[in-house]
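Students often ask why we bother predicting the structure of a whole assembly rather than each chain alone. The short answer is interfaces. A chain on its own may look different once its partners are present, and contacts between molecules only exist in the joint model. In this exercise we take two input lines together and write out one structure for the complete complex. Read the inputs first and try to guess which parts will touch.
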Amino acid sequence: MSLSVKSEVIENVAIITIEGALDSSTASQLHEEVQKIIQQNPTELVLNVENLDFMASAGLRVIIFAKQKLGSAVKLFLVKPQEQVVETLRMTGLLFSVTIVDKYPE
Amino acid sequence: MAEFDTRIDYYPTHEFEGIKYRRGHVLPFGATMVPNGVNFSIYSSSATSCTLVLFEKNAEQPFAEIPFPKEFMIGNVYSMIVFDLDYETLEYGYRMDGPFEPETGHRFDKGKILSDPYAKAIGGRDTWLAPPNWDKLYPFRSRLVFEDFDWEGDKPLETPIEDLIVYEMHVRSFTNHPNSGVKFKGTFTGLKEKIPYLLELGINCVELMPIYEFDEYEHSKKDPETGELLVNYWGYSTLNFFAPKSGYAATGKYGMQVDELKTLIKELHTNGIEVLLDVVFNHTAEGDHRGPTISFKGIDNKTYYMLTPEGYYYNFSGTGNTLNCNHPVVRSMVLDCLRYWASEYHIDGFRFDLAAILGRSQDGSPLSNPPLLESLAYDPVLAKCKLIAEAWDAGGLYQVGSFPFYGRWAEWNGKYRDTIRKFLKGDEGVIGDLSQRIQGSPDMYWARGATAGINFITCHDGFTLYDMVAYNQKHNEANGENNQDGNNDNLSWNCGWEGETNDDYINTLRHKQIKNALAILMVSQGVPMILMGDEMGRTQYGNNNTYCHDNELNWLNWELKEKNADLYNFAKHIINFRRNHPVFRNKDHFRNADYMNTGFPDISFHGKKPWQADWSPSSRIFAFMLDGGHAKSGFVGDDILYVAMNMHWESIGFELPQLPEGKQWHVSVNTEMPSPFDFHPISNEPRIEDQHNFMVGARSVIILIGK
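Now the answer. The structure tokens for the assembled complex follow.
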């Protein structure tokens, strides 16, 4: 399985587009991207995950990592997540700390 | 660069086939993430050498085997930090070399790869009943877990134990029935979806049957008659004490069982529901000398197990082996384990399966001052956890009432169950006993207070409440042991017909008996526990030992909630009634005196005539009155409560105690009446016409409120 990660920061909003499968073999790519973006102190983090097909434990860890690094003042948006991703976030308790939207800006 | 890169203790000093490592930290035991690597630490009193074996997740063969250099060993502890490992995909185990001499207690076998007793997750049974590969080199694999869960403000609830309504349940059984209505059936997530149901019923504490990792395929076999697969369904056989059961998590296949379980606990806590774990520290899944070598047996057999002088396994648990709990090293492991669950999972308390074993010495003899029980009682981390003993074992040690308690241990009150069952079926000679049980068993727990006993009439072992009134005999044929397994002494009465019947009279009587049982349980001092499904008449068709069935014998059939709506509504009422009346929930024993000067003693006993209980051997009636002015030892106010029970086959008139000026009797419960007149909504209880006499129906319980 593979993962493609692209990121940009526009006016303090960090946008990361993730496609493919987020598991233990690919999560480090996202982890690096998140670490890079955090350096720029964004005020919001937007994850475009419409084409993210699958997320395992390693993927969850990166989102937790991002959330903890950014602090509670920075809002984390998930744009158009697929059902498996939403279910996983719900069952592991992370759903409450992200905002799910159909598009960004809302 | 990060600060730790400047620390010398995180630089590799050794290299083996391209893998970098160094001397590790001896504590903590287990595998711990450290900067850039993992610290491994394990002990064995008698191994001659140890090798760390590393796997990629699910790989058949290891990618590395690193022998611990002699200089890495301190005392009997092997420790090593290995660098550049992927926390997510790593699976690890150990090989231990040493003598194979069963007669001296040693069973080393370096051909086996052993699971770490301190592993925090186990791979191998990721999905419930997924067919295992029996030839796998290393079937139960130690894994790492992350401790990054966001608990927000959550912590254990510390609800006073006397205020609990305990609901004993099996995670899979609760929602696995096709009609449960939840999406992820039989999982932690499924249970979470049903929290509104628990709240409606009035439950504020769930006791989960084992959720430590176990092998459902252990001792699995085909039923000779039906060909159905019989499995280790209940899970009273631990593979690892620190790892949650992956097959109970919908996300187990993604490796997120830890997060899913923590999410469930957090959500239960948010809703005011405590979580107790049923923990099995009396034996492991390794069986006796014929059983598999999975972990303890190959790491340090002599330390972990109680052995006979000939090197065989003592079997006080009835399952093949006995964990050597009062060996100082094993005691530390148990303590480490419970601290881990209390701190990392926010568990509110523990119920110890066959806890009498925890009070046995290394040669099996009962100790008067068992170090393990003492350590748990005085442990700072466990200081506010509920500690509840199943105070007997399969080796004949029965300690109900005498379990060493160190000022805080509570116990399953087996005598409560037996007395109430006898009374319900109309046995003679139990009134004296009954009066003790409904008071919180001061005869047994005088020095320990009213909360030392967990009152229950049914639990997972034995008949369900419905089966207790529908069967005289066990019917365990489906277990494939010719009906030889399970308890023969059920103290049950089938109300006139063995099993299902269309007879209205019998079915009405059965429902009434269930209501009687629930009513008595909820007006008793002590901590009430009900068995999952008893509130809606769950049946196991007379099977009193369903440990091996992954089917409708165990799954809760949610249609019963409608079918037996009268039972469900009654259960809901009586539970919430108890929660509304502090007079039922005293921490301290009654003094049988009017120490608050209200005009009534805290408790008084009555019969057909007020103030005159019928203690005669042939008596089947009993009434008592609780004075609300003495509720919670007089610290809160409540109404006056009068409960009359008649287990005679004829109606009996009770003359009521006279209330103080201005108060009148109101009826809350009368199990003789058909639904919906068997109870009245809280605070809406009707005043009774005749304030002096009450005709209590045959085999009925009434509850009156003086207000």
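Check your guess against this: The interface with chain A takes residues 57, 86, 88-89, 146, 148-150, 184, 188-189, 249-251, 254-256, 259-260, 262-263, 266-267 of chain B (CB under 8 Å).
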